[in-house]
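Hi Y.,

Following your request, here is the sequence exactly as I used it, all 78 residues.
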Amino acid sequence: MKDKNLLPDNNESTLEDLTDQANQIIESLENEKDLNNSVESYQKLLKLNNIIEKKFNKSFRSIGEETNKKVKEIIKKK
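Below is the corresponding structure, written out as tokens. Let me know if you'd prefer a different format.
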């Protein structure tokens, strides 16, 4: 599944917004009695999960890089 298959506004949403959207879909899936009606929602949830995972990994790498920079600066000061 590619990110481009999602609505464009998902690429600019925060992790929190995307998580809220996923939680809403999960809630609606839990309340759905006819599984045939839930296929599209489930596919959207999978796509959202993929976007959330990529954004999380990007944030994680960014935090790691920032931490490494700060550690190197502290080491240089000693």
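The longest helix spans residues 39-77.

Thanks again,
Q.
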